[in-house]
Write a structure and sequence with these properties.
- This protein is mainly beta and 175 residues long.
- It has a single domain, classed as OB fold (Dihydrolipoamide Acetyltransferase, E2P) (Beta Barrel), CATH 2.40.50.
- Helix content is 14%, strand content 37%.
- It has three helices and ten strands.
- The strands form two sheets. It has a five-stranded mixed sheet with strand order 8-1-2-10-9. The protein has a five-stranded mixed sheet with strand order 3-6-7-5-4.
- The longest helix is centred in the first third of the chain and has 15 residues.
C-alpha cells in the first residue's frame, strides 16, 4: 500500500476510472441509395447494392401480350433487358416519361431488370436503423415493397420483395 497521500490519491482516481461502466459504442451502418422521382412528386430510393447501372430510356420496345406494368425491352449490350414501369406496377397515375427519364438496371431475387424513373436526383446516404415504418400511400399500397421512409420524404424500396413477387414470374408452360 502506498504510504504517501499523493500516491493514495492517484490510486483512488485510477480505481474510480476502472470502476466506471464501459460504454459500448454502437456503430451506425450507413447505406447509400439512388434517389429518383416517379410521377409528379413521389420520391423513391433503391439501395446501391441492387443497382447495376443507369441508362437513358431510349430504344424501349413494347412487347405484345405482356402485363401493363411491363414497359418493354431494351437492348443492353446485345442482351434484351425487361423494363418495368413502377407507376403501373404500383397502380398509380402519372405523366408519361419524358426526356429526363432513365432506366435503373437492378438485380435482386435472382433476376436483372430495368425500372423506369421520371427523374434522377443522385444518391444519398441513410441509416437503415433510422428509417421510419412504411405507410400506405397513393404510390405503394403493398407495404412489403417498402423497406422504410428516409427523413419522411423518400420511400426506400425493397427490391427483393418487388422482384420476388409471383406476378413477375413468367409462366413457361404451353397450352
Amino acid at each position: 500500500m502506498p504510504s504517501s497521500e499523493k500516491d493514495r490519491k492517484v490510486l483512488k482516481e485510477r480505481a474510480v476510472l476502472f470502476a466506471k461502466k464501459e460504454v459500448k459504442r454502437v456503430e451506425a451502418v450507413v447505406d447509400t441509395y439512388i434517389h429518383f422521382r416517379l410521377g409528379t412528386s413521389e420520391n423513391y430510393g433503391i439501395s446501391y447494392k441492387y443497382v447495376d447501372e443507369i441508362l437513358y430510356a431510349v430504344g424501349l420496345t413494347r412487347v405484345p401480350c405482356t402485363p401493363p406494368f411491363i414497359a418493354g425491352i431494351v437492348n443492353r449490350r446485345g442482351k434484351m433487358l425487361t423494363v418495368i414501369d413502377l407507376k403501373r406496377f404500383f397502380q398509380t397515375t402519372g405523366k408519361e416519361y419524358g426526356n429526363d427519364s432513365r432506366v435503373i438496371v437492378i438485380t435482386g431475387a435472382g433476376i436483372t431488370v430495368g425500372v423506369l424513373a421520371d427523374e434522377m436526383f443522385g444518391n444519398k446516404d441513410y441509416y437503415p436503423s433510422q428509417l421510419t415504418a412504411p405507410l400506405p400511400s397513393d404510390g405503394v399500397s403493398n407495404l412489403k415493397y417498402v423497406t422504410g421512409i428516409d427523413r419522411g420524404t423518400v420511400t426506400i424500396l425493397n427490391i427483393d420483395e418487388i422482384l420476388g413477387d409471383p406476378i413477375l414470374k413468367v409462366n413457361e408452360t404451353a397450352g
